[in-house]
Amino acid sequence: MRRFLDRLYLAAGALGALFIALICVLMVGQSVLREFSVRTGAVNDVVSWFCAAAAFFAMPHAFKHGDFVRVTLLLESVSDAWRKRLELAALCVASVAVSYLAWWACKFTYESWEFNDMAQGLLAIPMWIPQMSFAIGSVLLLIAVLDELVLVLRGHTPTYVREVQERHARGDFSSDV
User: Fold this and answer.
1) pLDDT tier at 164 (50, 70, 90 boundaries)?
2) I want to staple 53 with a disulfide (CB 3.0 to 4.6 A). Which of 105, 130, 133, 169 is the partner?
């Protein structure tokens, strides 16, 4: 199961990176095509959807690798026992919050499909298609948060803490800047 989940988070991160690369290609392509007086208005719609897809698909990977913003000032000043309690509390709150997000993201996407909601921009496509990245990314983030909660309940160091410690041990402090 561990291997499957790690690959799932890696795939989600790769998909987020792919959407970032596609945004780059679309933006450069749009700039070049404008020089030849080719209209590219719908590209803006696609780029905005790809921005959301990049963000939501990248979240589970970023969370698991310690790339989310965490305020560790309090955690660094308490004992190991209190640190574990505070990590558990934070993960419980995160589980509730991300569950709420995932529920409403899926409900929102389903309702767009149910009511055949269409995009209002130059590219008229069913809205549930670009909204799927919101729903899937939210569910994957929920899985990642619950995965961390289970690890901490079993007495393990959170993956996001271990990843940062390993980077620091290699002398890589780039994520702290």
Assistant:
1) confident
2) 133
Three-state SS letters, 108-156: HHHHHHHCCCECCCCCCCECHHHHHHHHHHHHHHHHHHHHHHHHHHCCC
Q: Which residues neighbour 61 within 8 Å (Cβ) at sequence distance 6 or greater? A: 9, 10, 12, 13, 16, 67
Spatial distance between the Cα atoms of 136 and 73, rounded to a whole number of angstroms: 32
Give the span between the Cα atoms of 100 and 107, in whole angstroms. Answer: 11
Residues 6+ apart with CB under 8 A from 110: 128
Indicate the pTM of the whole model. 0.89
Contact 160, 63 (CB under 8 A): yes
The proportion of the chain whose per-residue pLDDT surpasses 90, expressed as a percent, equals 70
With vertex at residue 113, the alpha carbon angle to CA 12 and CA 125, rounded to the nearest 5 degrees, is: 80
Q: What is the pLDDT of residues 74-96, one digit of tens each?
A: 888 888 889 899 999 999 999 99
C-alpha to C-alpha distance for 80 and 146, rounded to whole angstroms:
21
Alpha helices in the chain (DSSP H): 2-35, 41-64, 80-114, 128-153, 159-169
